[in-house]
Amino acid sequence: MPDLFESDAALQRLPAADAELLYRSRLDIGAPTRAVLNELIERTPWRAESVVVWGKPYLQPRLTAWYGNEDARYEYSGLELDPLPWTPRLLAIKASVEQAAGSCFNSVLLNYYRNERDSMGMHSDDEPELGAEPVIASLSLGQARTLVFRHRSDRNRKSIRIELGDGSLLLMRGTTQRHWKHGIAKERRPCGARVNLTFLRIVHRLVR
């Protein structure tokens, strides 16, 4: 595994109390981002999932797909996800992300934001399967969208807004998930398609 301090040299540390956020505006994934975006949109078996929030099911305002190792089952908001097998394209992207992040991942959640009406609610990636201080790498392709962070306990703490552009990589690690929630709001103006790839490492196997 690459040395973390060495890999950080290509990532910009963002100022955030109670968190470790590192950002890289452009990551080489071995092919033009527009071509990869179109390939993922056309070839991914996207699903419209319903999640449970406060005991009620809601259709997610985006499409998703879950890939990973055979034992990388994941559960969040009432969903139990069995991974699809890695594709050559996703394995190549994973290798680029791992080299930049200095961490290894065994799964990836793809989120397809079709237009300005698609979004992601405020949440923390703090499920038990991810461990106490997960390392999460978020690669964005296509239309830039703004990721908003809000502190979970300190309401006086100013929100953090990060524009995730085409080809950008955001690394979240340390106590980030413990202290912050993050999400992507709907846009008021028309915007194009975006695919986000959230790379994770499942450390505790989900037992049914």
Explain what you see.
This protein is an alpha+beta fold and 208 residues long. It has helices at 4-8, 33-43, 88-101, 176-179, and strands at residues 12-14, 20-24, 50-53, 56-59, 63-68, 74-76, 79-81, 107-113, 120-123, 136-142, 145-151, 160-164, 169-173, 180-184, 194-200. A hairpin with an 8-residue loop joins β11 and β12 (160-164). The two termini are 32 Å apart.
Assign the structural class, choosing from mainly alpha, mainly beta, alpha/beta, alpha+beta, or little secondary structure. alpha+beta
Number of helices: 4
Determine the N-to-C terminus distance: 32 Å
Strand order of the largest sheet: 1-2-13-10-15-8-5
Helices and strands, in order, run as HEEHEEEEEHEEEEEEHEE
What percent of the residues sit in helical stretches (DSSP H or I)? 10-25%
Uncertain regions: pLDDT < 50 for 5+ in a row? 1-9
Q: Describe the biggest sheet?
A: 7 strands, antiparallel
Content of β-strand: 35-45%
Note the main attributes of this structure:
208 residues; four-stranded antiparallel sheet; seven-stranded antiparallel sheet; 4 helices; alpha+beta
